[in-house]
């Protein structure tokens, strides 16, 4: 079972890194989300999740599970959700300002290229 979890974490991490290195904003957002999922699964696996044992120490319980990894993963899920929402809003604002969804924002939109070409044409023929 451990090798399956390790392989799943490896696939999510490699896919996330691959998508983060793309030039468009949607694959970058998707890649960061995959990286967040990989970290969450890693934290769960490192916390030695036990099924059927209480997280609170009780004299009647024979064993207990550590609630710290679950609390960390819950916090990480909330932070990842907020980060994803911020990135989507930032990407939409960048798209409305620049007219494209490139991460670097250098590429001009079709309208800006057309306007600069018209200005160049008017400059040549006054």
UniProtKB/TrEMBL annotation:
It is a multi-pass membrane protein. Residues 100-126 are annotated as: Disordered. Belongs to the CPA3 antiporters (TC 2.A.63) subunit C family. The chain crosses the membrane at residues 6-21, 28-51, 71-92. NCBIfam families: PRK09094.1 (NF006573). Its main location: membrane. It comes from Methylophaga frappieri (strain ATCC BAA-2434 / DSM 25690 / JAM7). It comes from the Bacteria. InterPro entries: CPA3_antiporter_subunitC (IPR050601), NUOK/Mnh_C1-like (IPR039428). It is found in: Cell membrane. This is Na(+) H(+) antiporter subunit C. It holds the Pfam family Oxidored_q2. One of its GO terms (cellular component) is plasma membrane. Keywords: Cell membrane, Membrane, Transmembrane, Transmembrane helix. The keyword Cell membrane applies. Gene3D superfamilies: 1.10.287.3510.
